[in-house]
Amino acid sequence: MSKHASTQTNGSPVSEIPDSAAPIPAVDPRLLVREQGLTGYLGEFKRKLRSGDLGSLPVVIGLVLIAAIFQGITGKFLTAGNLSNITLYIAGPGLISVGIVFVLLLGEIDLSLGSVAGVSAAVSAVLSIQHGVNEYAAALIAVAAALAIGALHGFFFAKIGVPAFVVTLAGLLAWSGLQGWVMGNTGTLNNIPGGFIANLDNYFFESVAAAYGLAAVSVVGYLVAALLGAKSRRQAGLLAKPVGEIVLRAALLAVLAFGAAYTLNQDRGLPLALVVFLGVVVVTDFVLRRTSYGRKVFAVGGGVEAARRAGINVARVRISVFMISAGLAAVGGLFIASQAGFADKQLGSGNVLMNSIAAAVIGGTSLFGGRGKTWSALLGMLVIQSIVTGLDLQGISQSIQYMITGAVLLAAVVLDSVSRRTQKSAGRG
Predict the structure, then answer these.
(1) 180 and 310 in one domain?
(2) Same domain assignment for residues 259 and 327
(3) pTM assigned to the model
(4) Which of 146, 280, 326, 393 has the most CB atoms at less than 10 Å from its CB?
């Protein structure tokens, strides 16, 4: 009898405890979800909702409701011309918003980006129009100046320890003053007709092949990247999406992409502004999700001390993020100047900064740091511009538009706060 056996009073064995029990292998819950098919996915979706993991769902639902409401009221919202105009209006502020996403991931804020956009447009206009500098070179100098501004902000924040709010608030005032000084007594400088800046927000690829080609490249690119990623994960012994799920996602993307291409081709074709905006969103999304630098940004936003103990150069990451945000603000300023037709002392003021911040938050980037993606800028700008455009079609005053946009922003922040609290309660915060 084993030394672990126990006996009754009469000596007969009652039970035998084995010397070693075979371990029960852990099963990834995502495998169970996929094995259950549609029922499993629905259950997982409900579980995420209960735990506060809403993702982009509120934004998507909001866009559908906005489109349905304004189309029902005006009958013009979903026309090709109106939708094409929306893609133009979102490019400049949207590029600024992408930069804001980077800053928000650190749990910080940059209040200077509207002024940075304005001074960058002013520098480019003065150099090219008044001093005869090549427009491409003038634009590059303006972006380089913005990168230097971002490095300066980051230095005071990361090295000196001045709060980012104070540093960028000072920047808002200083660069706005510099913008006025650079413009001088001129006040306004019209873009060179047919020039580089003029074409940024006004050039269209008129061939129908351009829009459909971009849609095809997007779908094929996603499909190839997803399949290769899944293959790499399987080879590494990690859980990977099944091929059927990847193909289904690609099919849904194809419907959306080719539908958008068809709509744009019914108007003036594919806007250059949309191509640039989407390109920046895709590249920055790749940087954040697929590179070590992106992981460092999330790590610093998730916890500075933990990131520092993990060997991350926190100051370098912070400075680089402020440089990225300022550089993208400069590019956004050039697009805003292109849309307006001129650069002046007021470019970048008004609601440009607020809309850019609101877009990032409405799109799903957390104000508390460590959570978000650059696609938030695109989704959020679509929400804001759709509201503005729909109200314009109704002839609603700008003051009412500000109030509605503010209410939407507040709702997004409340949703973010509730989501974080729910996730903490569910053990996922």
Answers:
(1) yes
(2) no
(3) 0.86
(4) 326
- Provide the strand spans (E) within 87-159: none
pLDDT at position 2: 46
Q: Which tokens hold the place of 245?
A: 């799920």
Range of weakest confidence among 4-13, 204-213, 295-304? 4-13
The angle that helices 113-125 and 91-105 make with each other, rounded to 10 degrees, is: 130
Tell me the CB-side half-sphere exposure of residue 176, using CA atoms within 13 A. 17
Percent of the chain predicted with pLDDT > 70: 85
Indicate left, alpha or beta for 195 from its phi (over 0: left) and psi (-120 to 50: alpha): beta
Band of pLDDT at residue 39, cut at 50, 70 and 90: low
Q: How far apart are the C-alpha atoms of 336 and 355, rounded to whole Å?
A: 13
- Rounded CA-CA distance 296/303 in Å is 11
Rg (C-alpha) for the chain, rounded Å, is 26
**Residue 287 structure tokens:** 């940087």
Regarding beta strands 13-15 and 6-7, do their DSSP bridges make them parallel or antiparallel, or are they unpaired?
A: antiparallel
Q: How far is CA 423 from CA 6, 54, 362, 373, in A?
A: 47, 10, 19, 18
CA dihedral 229, 366, 249, 215 (to 10 degrees): -90
Helices (H), 266-369: 272-290, 292-302, 304-309, 314-340, 352-362
pLDDT per residue over 360-385, tens digit each? 988 888 888 788 899 989 999 999 99
Helices of type H across 156-271: 164-183, 196-200, 208-235, 243-265
Residue 234, C-beta contacts closer than 8 angstroms, at least 6 positions apart: 240
Determine contact, residues 151/214, Cβ cutoff 8 Å.
no
> DSSP characters for 20-80?
SPPPPPP--HHHHHHHTTHHHHHHHHHHHHHTT--TTHHHHHHHHHHHHHHHHHHS-TTSH
pLDDT at 99 exceeding the cut of 60 = yes
Distance CA 333, CA 92 (A): 6
Domain extent for 175: 61-206+268-412
The enclosing H or E element of 101 equals helix 91-105
Is there a single domain that holds both residue 262 and residue 136? no
At 282, list the tokens. Answer: 């895709």
Q: Among 235, 267, 299, which residue terminates a domain?
A: 267
